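Sequence in, structure out.
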Amino acid sequence: MTSQVFELPDLKLESGETLTGAHVAYQTWGQLNEDRDNVVWVCHALTANADVLAWWPGLVGPGCYYDPTEWFIVCANVLGSCYGSTGPLDADPATGQARFQHFPLLTIRDLVQAHELLRQDLEITDINTLIGGSLGGQQALEWAVLRPDLFDHLVVIATNARHSAWGIAFNEAQRLAIEADPTYAAGQPGGGDDGLRAARAIALLSYRSYPAYGETQTDPDPDELLREHRASTYQRYQGDKLVSRFDAYSYVSLSRSMDTHNLGRRRGGVPAALARIGARTLVLGITSDVLFPLSEQRELAAHIPGAMYGELDSRYGHDGFLLETAAITHFLELFYAPTFVH
């Protein structure tokens, strides 16, 4: 595994602002083969990072479908994150001060523009497979529309062509929780941490499912009168976990990026944009996903030329894209079979 940082040129954002002095952290595994046609580029989701072997075990890594002994795997941390790429905690070159809540709006197209510049710097001219779930899937779709000639295969899981009013409402509820924390407005390291705990608790309700909570978080003794319930302590535990590894300012920034996602913006609408995709495409939905319901993946498959569609029958809700790696592998084997021997 190799970890590196790519210094971006001045980046003209979709908003009209310019992001200067920015950089992208990325990691690679494996080696390019002689034909330079074994590249797998992974786009990560909201709070993940460039270390895809850590957050997608079972799918990427030694002995997995995407094994670094066979593939050259690339994963870049998105702008706006707190895992090495330029984000709200980094200093503005013009002032020398961190921007915190004043960090500029980054759209999904801006995130993809940074990926595209990194790809050019790496001198990669063909990507065998572009893959991502959730926010990562939004990036993958945007990039596949932007560069239809670049990708041989596209795999998107639990994602959509345009972020829904439902998804934006969930994100706004989380941002309201963060902004209600007075330390967030102060613009300081650790600002908004208490709000971030609450935001994570809200998010989990969209990431998981009613059956999953029922199976894992129901109190064991129905006759016991409790002040603190298993589901309550679970929400707090998950909030603490996120605060220990993430930042409220990045969370707000990236959730706003997700809200901007609309493949059809200034492209004649979503169907016209999806029709541009030239890669052989696999679209996977999750039966219990309430955040990205199956109707959104069916829309993708209906308008991407020749797309293969499948459903992961999972009790885990949206988080199934991270957890159902055996089922995802099964669909990948079917997907690659017509043209590619793995």
